[in-house]
Amino acid sequence: MDLVALPRLGVVVPPENPTAEPEFNQLLGSGVNVYAARFPGARGAGLRETLQAWNDALPQTLAQFGGMRLDAAIVACSASHYLLSPRGDRAFCDRLSQSAGFPVQSSTQAILAACEASGVERLTLVSPYEPWLTETSRAFWTQAGLDVVGVVPVPAADGFDPYRVTTADILGRIRRHRLRDDAALLFTGTGMGTLPALEALARTTGQVLLSSNLAGAWWTSRVLGKEPGHPLLRRLPPVSRVAAGSSSAQPRPIW
């Protein structure tokens, strides 16, 4: 296999995020090369200020790839894009794509594309966020035209920290909630490790299962025209059933 000739995905992640690149590598497999750029650190700033600073820094962070040829890029940070409206988020991605010369997508827009392709109208959020950010997330999806019918908060053992949430935390919280069968489960946030929990749930439910990283990998397969091999991706509409597109591969607006 000629590794240099494989399709290339750029992933932009928060500096402390330990999860995004490993999950993208697992989901996309050996047929795509994944390269990462990290947002600048923001020591001493509050969470909201940090998220806004990452939105401001996104064009410069993408520029870290320099002249490397990329086929697509994902902004693997859902929380910062919840501060934007769905329409503003989409316009932001369009501007980034035009400037970069390749499709650039946020994980939030990838989720919206996956929801549209799957016919999803209702969501149950599984959120590791602080309450204010969970509510910001709920407002984003509601503004996008989706009905958020429930929220499952998933704090870590020592407080709200997506990077410290375990598979046992996720499954334990879900088992204590009565979930609606007609709503997709959305595990929000690229830093919460979700693949083992998703794989366990996939064995027992026919519900649509989505996470920020799963939707990003599905969008990547869509843009690259590659049939997904991972079982979780195969639960979503196959590439052949959705338009791949050559620019930002955005869905039609649903808000």
UniProtKB/TrEMBL annotation:
Lineage, highest ranks first: Bacteria, Bacillati, Actinomycetota, Actinomycetes, Micromonosporales
Name listed for the protein in its UniProt record: Arylmalonate decarboxylase
Organism: Actinoplanes siamensis
InterPro entries given in the database record: Iso_Racemase_Enz_sf, MaiA/AMDase
Pfam families xref list: Amdase
